[in-house]
Specification:
Elements (H helix, E strand, L loop, with lengths): L12 E5 L4 H12 L3 E6 L3 H13 L4 E5 L5 H15 L4 E4 L14 H23 L8 E5 L12 H21 L5 E7 L8 H13 L9 H12 L10 E4 L5
Parallel strand pairs: 1-2, 1-4, 2-3, 4-5, 5-6, 6-7
């Protein structure tokens, strides 16, 4: 008889950076639906984070919020401390916070570089630093969010693709460092996902992208969330240092 996934994370606790919207919110909803208590990290979208926490609590789940600038060490440190104080443990870290932008060579500035790399690379490092010493041993799970453009960049994705490629490299390196402690580290690399942040891209390029996928559609946050939930579960215990493309098989 196959195992049920409805309570596959029962009793576990997750901290999700960038959890108020998009892929992060999708992960929060599904982790909570499968039984995890969730600390929802957010930057500028506190109202959305609180609404999501209330949505989860209204159906019997457990969720709290923790805000701040992901580029500052204190943000994840405080969120992890609050998670431990509230729930008494930490099993799962999902680093979904980040920003994207499109720049050709002549448009790239020093500030643009810092914005993209500080949010996507430094923010990921700081979250992992804050969480790693408190994750359950063995059995802790770290899931980073990279992007398919890190593997197959477009002409105007230089900064974002480079930052997400760094996330993939860090994922493998941290997997080797933390593996002896029984902690797995993996990444999901989504293609174009229909989120609030990407609605303009979906409107202008969505049909072309969908035509390039065997499944002939644009991805949804739930498509990524299901892979994150697998990597967060005990079923993924023999998977580490890997990046799973969640892009509908785009060519």
């Amino acid at each position: 008889m196959p195992h049920s996934t409805t309570d596959s994370l029962a009793g576990k606790v997750a901290y999700v950076t960038g959890g108020s919207r998009g892929v992060g919110a999708g992960a929060v909803r599904l982790l909570a639906a499968r039984g995890a208590a969730v600390m929802i990290g957010f930057g500028a979208h506190g109202a959305e984070a609180e609404a999501l926490a209330e949505e989860i609590r209204s159906v019997g789940g457990q969720a709290e919020i923790a805000g701040g600038d992901i580029r500052k060490a204190v943000t994840s440190k405080t969120a992890v401390e609050r998670t431990l104080a509230t729930y008494g443990r930490l099993d799962i870290l999902v680093t979904a916070a980040g920003i994207s932008r499109r720049d050709t060579l002549g448009d790239i500035s020093e500030q643009a570089y810092r914005d993209v790399y500080d949010a996507n690379v430094l923010g990921t490092i700081l979250a992992i630093q804050a969480a790693a010493t408190h994750l359950r041993r063995p059995g802790g799970r770290i899931i980073t969010v990279s992007s398919r453009v890190a593997i197959n960049p477009t002409a105007d994705s230089t900064l974002y693709a480079g930052a997400k490629a760094a996330v993939i490299a860090m994922t493998e390196a941290f997997a080797k460092e933390l593996g002896p402690q029984g902690i797995t580290v993996n990444s999901v690399a989504p293609g174009l996902i229909a989120t609030e942040r990407m609605q303009d891209v979906v409107a202008t390029r969505g049909a072309d992208v969908a035509a390039q996928t065997p499944l002939r559609r644009i991805g949804l946050p739930d498509d990524v969330a299901r892979v994150i939930a697998f990597l967060a579960s005990d079923d993924s215990g023999w998977v580490t240092g890997r990046t799973l493309r969640v892009d509908g098989g785009i060519v």
